Amino acid sequence: MCSLSPDLIPEILCRVGVEDLLRFRCVSKPWCSLINSPDFIKLQLSYSLSTNTNLSLILRSSYLFSVNFDSLQTAQKLYHPLDENDEGEGTEILGSCNGLLALCNGEEEICLWNPSTRKSLMLPVTEIEFPPWFCCAHFIVYGLGYDPVSDDYKLVRMVQFYGKYVDSFASEVKVFSLKTNSWRRIKDFPFYLKYKRAYGILANNALHWVVSKKPESDTESFVVAFDLGTEEYRVVQLPDCLDKGFHMNVKALGGCLCMIANYWKPYVVDIWMMKEYWVKESWTKLLSVKQTEVALCFDFVLPLAYSRCGDKILLNRDDEKFVWYDLRRKRVKNVKIQGAPSSFEAEMLVGSLVPLNGNGAMLNKKKQTDKKKQKKNKKGNDFLSQGFHLVL
């Protein structure tokens, strides 16, 4: 190692897996300082994203599972920070960004977690500010992203409320900043969210949702972006050549925004990619497949990732199965993963050393136990508040 130039060592180490890098911190103090430095963390992340390496597939059912993307052979259960507080409904994944996962066990239990470093951070609780006219239901969607200008990770929470009338709805939007470890309210979201469980799709430092102007089912759908830097909402222009009568969805592939159009008649799925962000003319049809060719279910077909060579795309089908789609030969190949749950949601994750710095408390078992006791005490207090008394 003494014969190597100091400039070469980071270039070599950034090609190593995260688990090895964590061990290599014990080699020497200079190596530990290098691997923990912000510049090296960004270098390792940039190399992994540009070369499509250090990737894993995260499957979410009642539990979380991880699958090595290079092999796609075996699913291994992940023991995440909210495991002990999971009451059987399954921890939700609210978003993924640069190796971080946002996890949720209800509105009051949200954490950021880096599965590679096994570090986690509980987010402070922020109340929902219900409008005075609110009388029906509400739902919440999230989105996790990174703002390179402020060098900050942000979790966006959108709450949408319904009123008495069909077209009456409103929203509340808050943004959590990892740098400040705090929530703040921003400008309300002026559109109607079409999907009640869809988290924001991250592409080009913006989160994207499928929306409409009104809640009616026959209202035209379109895509809105939330810029993580300016924190402004903008409508994304879609291709002009789209036909009518299709189900729209969005996804990110290779860092680019994709729009999925699932047509009912004829039964065809088209996947479009915006190769140059915010340039309408750069929309390119990536693939178009008829149902009879691959027997796909069109309610839910999402692209997940390119193969290492870039000639194939991993697709997630509606029946919770995966297929490789060969872009050149236009053929598919089924992917069988041992140990995978029968029903799941899939998410791509890159291995990284991104830290969870902030003033918040790290999640630990003691805090989890204390929180459970608080819940039990709260139930007891609620019982007594109804006019009942304990008899000793």
From TrEMBL:
Domain F-box: 4-44
Lineage: Eukaryota, Viridiplantae, Streptophyta, Embryophyta, Tracheophyta
CDD domains given in the database record: F-box_AtFBW1-like (cd22157)
Signal peptide extent: none
Family matches, as SMART domains: FBOX
Gene name for this UniProt entry: LOC111285875
Organism per entry: Durio zibethinus (Durian)
Protein name, as recorded: F-box protein CPR30-like
InterPro entries recorded: F-box-assoc_dom_typ3 (IPR013187), F-box-assoc_interact_dom (IPR017451), F-box-like_dom_sf (IPR036047), F-box_dom (IPR001810), Gal_Oxase/kelch_b-propeller (IPR011043), SCF_F-box_component (IPR050796)
